[in-house]
Design goal:
With 582 residues, the protein is mostly beta strands. The chain has three helices and 39 strands. The longest helix has 21 residues.
Amino acid sequence: MNNYLAQKSLLAATSLAAGLLATGLVAQENPIDNITPVTDEMLLNPPDGDWLMWRRTYDGWGYSPLDQINKSNVGDLKLAWAWAMTPGRTQQTPLVHDGVMFVQNADHVIQALNAATGDLIWEYEYELPDDVRARGERNKAIYEDKLIVATRDAHLIALDTKTGQLIWDKQVANHNFGYSFSAGPIVADGVVVQGMTGCGRGQPGGCFFTGHDVNTGAEIWRVNTIARGDTPEGNSWNGIPLESRHGASAWLAASYDPEQKLVFAGVGQPYPWISEMNGLLPKSSDPNVTNDALYTNSTLAIDVNSGELKWYFQHLPSDSLDLDYAFERLLIDLPVNGQERKTVVTVGKIGIIEAIDRVTGEWLWGVETVPQNVVLSIDPETGQKEINPEVVPRIGETTFNCPADPGGKSWQATAYSPRTGGLYLPLVEFCSNTTPNPLDPGEVYTGGGRATFARVPVPDSDGNVGRVDAVNLSDQSTMWSYRQRAPVTSSTLPTAGGVVFVGTLDRKFIAFDDETGEILWSSGKLSSSLESFPVSYMVDGKQYVAITANFASGLGRLRQITPEVKLPANDPITVYVFALPG
C-alpha cells in the first residue's frame, strides 16, 4: 500500500472511531447537505458560531463571541474528538461554517469534517511537485460556494465546499524560482487577496501582494513589496539596483477595513539579513539616497479593488537581525489623547506594540513588552526608532541581541477582546549571539539569511521563557502578565465567556481568566507542541474549542533553551476539539 493510501486508511479509521464515540452508533445528518453559500454580508458580520477566516473577522481580532464555555465551567472541558493529520509541518487554522470544518494537511490533502463528530465528509488531494516540501498553509478562505486555498508551489485553488471538487487553479508565480505561499488568502469585497513568500532565495525584486477574481483566479492587480523607480521610496535601497534587492516576504494574511475598502498587510525583512552583504551598509553618500529599504518591515494600506498603495508606515528600517514586522494587523477604534482614533495595531518580533492611524498612516504610540536591546529610543511624535549600533551584525564579529531571530513575538497572533479592551499577546523571552556567514570571494548570493543565531536565555533570567501578557489598549497599561518555563507557541483566543486560550511548546492547551490571568484549565499533555491558531465555534447549540497540535515551527527551535521539553520524533499532527460534557 502506498503512503497516501495508508494515510487515507488511517484517516478513515480515525474518522470512524471518532464518529462512533461521538454519536453512540446513532446516525447523524450530514451537515454538508445543509451548508449555505458564504455571502459578503456573512464575512462582514459572521454568525457567532462560525469561524470564516483566519482571525474570524476582517478586523483581525481573533475573538469569539461565544460564551457557553465561561470562567465558571471551563474547568470541566473534555476532549470531544480528535483528527489525525498527515505528517509534515502545518500551522493551519481550521475554518468552520454551518457545522463543517475545513482543514489542510501538510501534504495538501484538504478535508471537510463534521465539526461536531470529526467524521470525514470529503477530501481533495492537491499534488505538490516532487521538489516542493510538504508544508501546510496557515489559513484558507471561504466565499460563496468556494473554499480558496494557497499552495506551497505558489498556486491558488478553489474547491466546491459541498463536494471538494476543483473549480479553478491559478498559478501565481513559478515555484522553481523559490516563490511559495506560507499563508492563505482573505476575500474582501469579492477580491481574493494573497501575499507571496519565498523571495529570500536570491530571487531579484522581492515579493508582492496580488488581488484575484474570485470566480476565475485571474490576477487583477499586483503590489510589489520592494520599492522601485526614481522615487523617494525607490531610492531607499542605498543605490542597490533592483535585481540585487531581495526579500520583503508576506508571511501572514491581511486585515480589511470595509469602510475605506483598504487591506492592511505586513511585510518582512530584506535578504540576506546582514546589511554589509545586502548592500545597505556602508551608507551611500548620495543625499538623494537612503538605506531604509522600503517597503520591508512596513504596514501597507492597499485599495482592495485597484491595488493602489494608499499609504505605508515602516516600523524598522534596514533590519539586519531577522526581526520582521510581517504579522497580524488588528483594526481597533481606540482613545488617543482624548480623541477616538481608527487605529491599526501590530507587534513585530521586537515585541513593541504599535498603533497607527489607519486613515492617515500617522504613528500614534508604542509600548515595549519583552526584554530587548535593539531599539534605544522611539520618537514620541513620529515613531522613528534609534537602533543600538552595538547589535548590528558585522562580518568577522559576533554581536549580542535580544530578542533572538524567532522573535519575542512571532507569527503566533495576538488577539483583542472588546469585553476587556485587552490585547492578549503570546510572547517568549530569549536572546542570541549573532554571527554573519559571509559569501566566499566570487560567490553569488542565491538565498538565505547568511547568519548563525546561537540562542541563549536573557541575561540574569529566572529561567522562564514563555509568557502571556494582557495589555489594556486604551492606556497601554499591563492588566496581567503570566510567565512559565516552557515557551508559549500558539496564538491567543479570547472569548465572550471571559476565557483566553493559548498553547505551549510542552504540549498543553491552557485557559486563563481574561481579567486576572489565573489559570482556569489545562488540557494536560497532548500529542505534540501546540504551534497554531485556536478557534471556537458552535454546532447545534454546543460550543467547541479547537487547536492543531504540531511541531517544527520556528519557535520549536527554542528547545535548545529548554532542553527538558521533550517532543515526539515522528511529528504527529492532530486536530484536538474540546467541549463541555453533556
